[in-house]
Amino acid sequence: MTRTQTADGRRGPLEVNGRRYPWPDRPVVVVCVDGSEAAYHERAVADGRMPFLERMLERGADLRADCAMPSFTNPNNLSIATGAPPSVHGICGNYFYDPASDAEVMMNDPELLRADTLFARFSQQGARVAVVTAKDKLRRLLGRGLKGGICFSAEKAGEATEEENGIGKVLERVGMDQPSVYSAELSELVMAAGVSVLESERPELTYLSLTDYIQHKHAPGSPVANAFYAMLDHWFERIDALGAVLVVTADHGMNAKSDGAGEARVVFLQDVLDARLGSAGGPRARVVLPITDPYTVHHGALGSYATVHLPDGTDLAAVAAGLAATEGVLEVLTRDEACARFELPGDRIGELVVVAERNTVLGTSPERHDISGFTEPLRSHGGLSEQRVPFLVNVPVAPGRWLPAGHRLRNFDSYWLATALAAAPAGD
Ligand SMILES: [Zn+2]
Questions:
Q1: What is the pTM of this model?
Q2: Which of 165, 205, 347, 375 has its CA 20 to 30 A from that of 277?
Q3: How far does the centroid of ligand 1 lie from the alpha carbon of residue 34, in Å?
């Protein structure tokens, strides 16, 4: 038991994954706007579509943070939930190759999680916790160990029950129909349901995780993107009015991955490696694209990060040098280098990690990526060029007081900072 009761009856801080979290006196709400490159809200504010956010940033804090690498959804949602990088929680992609079982597996299984979430630990100490995700793929990971509390996905909102999810009749509660998984409404449902729960139950911790469907299809400042951010602005204002400390951040940014004519710029790594290493009797290299998830309409499994498994005896330096010289490739790191620099679990990545340049993605072979049905030029993420994300707070964050000098702000500092702010007297 790490919770302590102080002399004045207040609950003391919790230690989770080596970091200290004060017990908040006000609700804390973290919104992870999936794929929210800063230009999205900046353009929407400039175009007068986010009047609340504009005011919020005048009195609060308009910060930027680095997300965890690779800049994909699952690693970053779990980093925000655990306050720790993938080296600690083990989720380093949406998808990985497990050499032990010789299988490529989705990283959706709670068994793969190696650290407690803040939601689990706070709820086990008696806090009310609400976790609402857009896609169902994250719900089980984020809900692992949760005691009581509310945890459901908008994708399966109609199926949520009191027994399973701590809440039922979600659609009736917010007056919405079940949205498509490929829609802006899926995120709107997360926001509406989260605010409804905040209003009625006032959880100590709330986590609202959206989908990047809009960001994959529409550039910052475009009419569809601006309409999406105007919708968010309404809900941010409601959360603020309910007296919560609000942090708005993102799991990763988003960039165009096409040339001037709108053609996707792709380096097909399997083909490059087969040409180099030979493929008679089967390929020598196994290229794993950790962006892979069931929602390929978003990105065609094309992102700016890949990892490569190679057989023993391969001349890694020569292969790395060859890949690094390929047009569109930014950097090639060995496993040790990638673990040290990106804080990754070494047993869940290959011998090499490849990062693409800003407007390029990495694929395996052309026939394994069908983006012929895409009506918009490819936009995606995964690389260092999508690591910078917004970190917006509705209360002031005095440097030096709340952030140590020289602190590199991460998106997974969200609860660490917000619980500290929410434990301080209002106006402090
Ligand atoms: Zn994402």
A1: 0.95
A2: 347
A3: 4
What's the CA-to-centroid distance between 168 and ligand 1, angstroms?
26
Å from CA of 142 to ligand 1 middle: 15
For the chain, percent of residues with pLDDT exceeding 90: 84
Q: What per-residue confidence (pLDDT) applies to 377?
A: 87
> Ligand 1 centroid vs 317 CA: distance in angstroms?
32
Ligand 1 centroid distance, CA of 274 (Å): 30
Centre of ligand 1 from the C-alpha of residue 21, in Å = 26
Q: Give 4 Cα–ligand 1 centroid separation in angstroms.
A: 36
Q: Cα of 89 to ligand 1 centre, how many Å?
A: 17
Give 232 Cα–ligand 1 centroid separation in angstroms: 17
Ligand 1 centroid distance, CA of 383 (Å):
12
Specify the pLDDT at position 375: 79
Q: What is the 400 CA–ligand 1 centroid distance (Å)?
A: 31
Q: Which range among 93-107, 177-191, 351-365 shows the weakest confidence by mean pLDDT?
A: 93-107
